[in-house]
Amino acid sequence: MNRMKSAIALKKLQEEVVQCRKCPRLVTYLKEIETHKPKRFRDWNYWSKPLPSFGDPNARLLIVGLAPAANGGNRTGRMFTGDRSGEWLFGALYQFGFANQPNSLRRDDGFSLNDCYITATIRCAPPKNKPLPEEIETCRSYMLKELDLLKRIKVIIPLGQIAFIQTLKSLKFKGFKIPSLSFGHGKVYPLSGSTELRTQNSELRTIALITTYHPSQQNTQTGKLTRPMFHQIFKMARSKL
User: Fold this and answer.
1) Which of 53, 66, 76, 104 is 20 to 30 A away from residue 110, measured at CA?
2) Residue 110 forms beta bridges with which residues?
3) Residue 14, Cα to own-chain centre: how many angstroms?
4) Do the Cβ atoms of 211 and 185 come closer than 8 Å?
């Protein structure tokens, strides 16, 4: 499948994501969020649907988030757009040449990614930011299809431990050999695919997995994750590419 076909397939896949209604609990919760939205967002017409992944279909860097924020991505209609975690993520991506501007508040503000694609473990904002195991498994099929279509991915950065664990599970489903790995900030794990995952040059497909704490307010406000620590992750990613 050439790049144009992959890009078209990715677009169709994201259209499928937006139409998904497989998890009744999440469908109900999205409606509740808009009904009880904060006063500062009372003039917003909330997206209130599953969020599509977005970015460069020819990307070599894949970012894996956890779930949309109730009044962030779920409000704006784009992952990490309009919330504090997004400020950290987009700022780092901009500094290392993966984005055209340092932040994004709306999905129509011209923000775009270069050589980077952003996806998530689950596409709907869950109650208390805690998706159920069965909801994660239901949503996994979308990421598995993305891994098939994003042919050039060389580096994956899961944001936080849950995204780390679920990314490893997804890669295992796609035939990657996954040894016993521990989570911690700034670790780099080279992973190789099975013989079915050979490149056009008959080489095994390899990916570098780089771990980081999630840029949540809980981590950034307590100092568990600082900007230098977070930026170091993307410096490492850039060096790998």
Assistant:
1) 66
2) none
3) 13
4) yes
For residue 47, what are the CA distances in angstroms to 35, 43, 139, 172, 200? 12, 13, 18, 33, 40
Helices (H), 106-203: 133-149, 161-173
User: Which amino acid is residue 135, in one-letter code?
Assistant: E
Instruction: Quote the crossing angle between the two packed helices 161-173 and 133-149, to the nearest 10°.
Output: 60
Kindly report the pTM of this predicted structure. 0.94
Residue 5's pLDDT band, with cuts at 50, 70 and 90, is confident
Residue 196 has pLDDT above 80, yes or no: no
Distance of CA 223 to the CA centre of its chain: 23
Contacts 24+ apart (CB under 8 A), 229-232: 229/185, 229/186, 230/88, 230/92, 231/92, 231/95, 231/96, 232/186
Nearest Cα residue to 196 out of 186, 205, 188: 205
CATH of the domain at 139: 3.40.470.10
Determine how β-strand 61-65 pairs with β-strand 116-120: parallel
pLDDT above 60 for 123: yes
Which pLDDT tens digit goes with each residue over 82-93?
A: 999 999 999 999
pLDDT tens track for 27-64: 999 999 999 999 999 999 999 999 999 999 999 999 99
Q: How many domains does the chain have?
A: 1
Which domain covers residue 193, as residue numbers? 3-240
Helix (H, G, I), strand (E, B) or coil at 153: coil
pLDDT given for residue 222 in this prediction:
96
Backbone dihedral region for residue 186 (phi beyond 0: left; psi -120 to 50: alpha; all else: beta):
left
Beta-strand runs (E) in the chain: 54-55, 61-65, 116-120, 155-158, 188-192, 206-210
